[in-house]
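Deviations from the work plan: none for this task. Representative record:
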Amino acid sequence: MILLGFIDDVLDIPWRVKLLLPTIAALPLLMAYAGGTSIIIPKPLASYVGVEVLELGWMYKLFMLLLAVFCTNSINIHAGLNGLEVGQTVVISAAVLIHNVMRIGSSKDLETQQAHAFSIYLVLPFLTTSLALLGFNWYPSSVFVGDTYTYFAGMTLAVVGILGHFSETLLLFFLPQVLNFLCSVPQLFHFVPCPRHRLPRFDTQTGLLTGTKDGNLVNIFLRLFGKCSEKSLCIRLLIFQAVSCLFCFWLRYMLTGWYK
Amino acid sequence: GDLVLRPPNLRLVLAAMALFLAPFSYLAFVHYPLAADLRRSILICGAISLGGFFVVLRLIPVAARYLLRRGMFGKDINKKGLPMGEITVPESLGIVVGIVYLVIAILFQHFNFTADSIWLVEYNAALASVCFMILLGFIDDVLDIPWRVKLLLPTIAALPLLMAYAGGTSIIIPKPLASYVGVEVLELGWMYKLFMLLLAVFCTNSINIHAGLNGLEVGQTVVISAAVLIHNVMRIGSSKDLETQQAHAFSIYLVLPFLTTSLALLGFNWYPSSVFVGDTYTYFAGMTLAVVGILGHFSETLLLFFLPQVLNFLCSVPQLFHFVPCPRHRLPRFDTQTGLLTGTKDGNLVNIFLRLFGKCSEKSLCIRLLIFQGCVMPILLLAEIHAYWMVQMMITRNTTSRQFP
């Protein structure tokens, strides 16, 4: 993914092909995946579905592929402010690490413990190296991260979600990215005009950003909470990311036992 | 500048493919009684590899446009002074070969039904090293990394291989030397891993410096790959040891797609080059060959196939280590009137051949060097067969002499 992301940064690949890149990059994962391809139906729904454990087969691999495509591209489009791309990734990674160690601590199943340990080994170096980048990328940015970073970040998180067997939880951590994607759909699929950069308007006098009509969280936050500086807006969005993760922890805690 | 892309030289590459794959196919499917499983896997690998050939042919013109547009091009130094020397030739087309190769190699896993988890680990470690090398090679082409760091790149790229290598770290001492050394099997431990690393660094950089003529980089790689394939199938056919057979089959699965995708690139890179291959290709090529040499357990034979590269490296040492002045490009002098190249005092095979055999055109010189690359192989293979029989004779002689004290 790093290779394809870097090639994209160098050659500026058209976006239709860009969507395909995570598919190609995810191939080794799909080929090597030797784990189970069944999902556990939440208890309340089990009576409706009929079974407690549903064997998905190739559809599970398709889900893995879609998760990789989603994680990479959703981080890529939830961008445009100094420090936003790295910041959101760092918050999600921290949440993943805490989730991993909580599951290891509360689970008696050796396989589950190993899966979450696997995730820790991959996310810990990812978190620290990303923080080093944030040192240069935080407002005001001395460097930009490129598609190389957003694709690499998305793939790393998708990979640990898949091989750590916690992809549903990962999607919950990605709630802001999901919302951002849903809001962006009309423009991405050209139901509505889509400019090259869907960025806010910058006022050189006040130094504040004003929200445009674009359908992404950056502009929606500006329209909801009023104009503010780039740094404040980024902090607000990262707080939203952190709060979403906390909400997910609370949700899992509330639903334990009842859910699985 | 605009993109000038001649149609690929299909006659040449299809002839080359037939030339290189015919003896291999004969040995694999007719001469040696290989297991049906193995034959099926090779056939599937061959089919996917052939598909890759056509995909690369289709993608190179597309990639060439993008690369040119983003400033990744060069001018053909060996045509300086002619109109052809003014054309902006897109560089780093090795990236197309690399990506198509990786996709083929990754997908092939799915079709190897005899794979166990150890095989999967080794195979994926090999692909990780090759992928890492393609990434670092492309970064080098884009950022123009200083050469001291460049030497380090294959070291980094070879890490997955070193980490995952679970094979033996001992070498078998040739029987005649065994009495001097004291043991028949010498356990090298970490020194074996160091050797693996040095092999990767050598293969990549030696191909990189034996370059500068249209088609030379890809051409030499294609010749070596063909030799590797034939060596692999010969060892499978003549060995009864299952591990040896598996190691050489492993090598075939990785080299076959490499050969076909490289031939597609050669279609555009052969004289006169429409595209240049870049460090992306030479590093990728060297790493792929080093990887199969290591995991196929035939690294000594691989080094023999690299004899021209070894000679080129040895001749280059004075300039590379600055004992003697070293220009930016150690290329011959091009005469715009005659269209011929004249050898300079530089210490590389390109110039040495010109000084030994007289001036000639770029295309002829490249062909001469590729023939040299190809010639060492029959000689070495004959020597290998001869040595094998010598060893066999020594075994029987020793056993018979012991029976009659």
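The longest helix of chain B spans residues 362-403.
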